[in-house]
Design brief:
18 strands, 2 domains, Ferric Hydroxamate Uptake Protein, Chain A, domain 1, four-stranded antiparallel sheet, 5 helices, single chain
C-alpha cells in the first residue's frame, strides 16, 4: 500500500518533468563574458535603439506532406529541411524552454499563455537561449493558445535586432553563437510525443494536446501502475501500456472518470497494484487514424 500522503488530493496537478524535452537550459548555460551577466553587458554598452514596431508579412505555414518543389522557400527554409523530419516526433515545450538542446530541426508544441512572460532576443532569427514559445508568438507563428510549430536551428549572428510585434517586445543583442527560426507547420498532429517510464496520465491529460499520440520505451518494468484495464491517473502511462499489451510505438490515453475498483494483476511482465478509494482513471489504447 502506497503512503496515504500521495493521495492528499484528487486532480491533475502534476508538473511535467524537464527531462521530457531535454531542452530547458536556463540563462546560466550562456558562458559569461568576463563574469558579466547579459543584463550587465547590455547596460555597459547602452540600451541601444528602441525596438521598432512590426509591419512585416506573416510567416508561411509548411507541412511535411506538402513540400513545394522549389529548392528555396519563403523565410529562408529549404525544401530538404522541410521535407524530412527525422525522427518524426514532436517535443512538448514549456513557456520557459529555449532552443538549446533541441536538434537542428524539430516539431515542437507550445502551451497556451506564454505571451510576455519570458525573454526573447532578436526578430525573425532569435538567439538560441530565447524562449521558443514566446518567439513563436512574437513572429506571428502562434497565438496566445499555443500549438505546433517547426523550429530550425541556424548559425550565430553578429547582431540581433529588437522589435515589437504581436504584443511581444523582443530585445536587441550582439554576437551570439547559435540562432533559430520558427515557422508554422501543419499535418504533424500524428507525430508522437516520446514519454519516459515515469510520466503519468496526469501529465498527459493536463500538459499535452488533446488526443495526443504518444510513444513509450519498449519496456518499463519499474513504472508504478495501479489497476487493470482502468488505471489511476498517477500510474505510469508506459507501464500501463505494457501491462495492457498496447504496442509502445503509437498509443493514446483517454480519461475515464472516477472509479474505486482498481484491481491489481500480473500481466505482460508488470505487476499492478490494487486501489479501492475513489480516484480519477484513464485507459490506454493503440493509436489508429480513426481514433483522431
Amino acid at each position: 500500500m502506497r503512503p496515504a500522503a500521495s493521495r492528499a488530493a484528487v486532480g491533475f496537478a502534476v508538473v511535467l518533468a524537464p527531462t521530457v524535452v531535454g531542452c530547458s537550459v536556463e540563462m546560466a548555460s550562456r558562458p559569461p563574458r568576463g563574469g558579466q551577466s547579459r543584463e550587465a553587458l547590455a547596460a555597459s554598452r547602452g540600451a541601444g535603439p528602441a525596438p521598432a514596431a512590426s509591419s512585416r508579412a506573416p510567416r508561411p505555414v509548411f507541412g511535411p506532406a506538402s513540400t513545394p518543389p522549389s529548392s528555396q522557400l519563403p523565410g529562408g527554409i529549404t525544401a530538404s529541411e522541410l521535407g524530412s523530419f527525422s525522427p518524426s516526433e514532436a517535443r512538448l515545450l514549456s513557456c520557459t524552454d529555449n532552443a538549446n538542446g533541441i536538434p537542428s530541426r524539430a516539431v515542437v508544441f507550445c502551451p497556451a499563455g506564454c505571451r510576455r512572460r519570458h525573454g526573447v532576443w532578436g526578430s525573425r532569427i532569435y538567439t538560441s537561449d530565447s524562449s521558443v514559445c514566446v518567439a513563436a508568438i512574437h513572429d506571428g507563428v502562434l497565438g496566445e493558445r499555443g500549438g505546433y510549430a517547426l523550429l530550425l536551428k541556424r548559425s550565430g549572428r553578429i547582431s540581433y535586432p529588437g522589435e515589437e510585434a504581436h504584443g511581444v517586445v523582443s530585445s536587441p543583442y550582439g554576437a551570439y553563437p547559435e540562432s533559430f527560426e520558427i515557422f508554422g507547420v501543419s499535418g504533424v498532429e500524428t507525430f508522437p510525443f516520446r514519454l519516459a517510464c515515469h510520466h503519468d496520465a496526469n501529465t498527459v491529460l493536463t500538459k499535452f494536446p488533446p488526443r495526443a499520440v504518444l510513444s513509450c520505451p519498449r519496456s518499463c518494468p519499474r513504472g508504478k501502475v495501479y489497476g487493470d484495464g482502468f488505471y489511476t491517473v498517477d500510474s505510469s502511462v508506459c507501464g500501463a501500456a505494457q501491462h495492457a499489451g498496447v504496442p509502445p510505438e503509437r498509443l493514446v490515453v483517454r480519461a475515464a472518470g472516477q472509479r474505486s475498483d482498481f484491481v491489481g494483476r500480473w500481466r505482460n511482465g508488470i505487476r499492478s497494484s490494487a486501489w479501492t478509494s475513489v480516484w480519477e482513471a484513464f485507459t490506454v489504447h493503440p493509436w489508429i487514424p480513426s481514433s483522431r
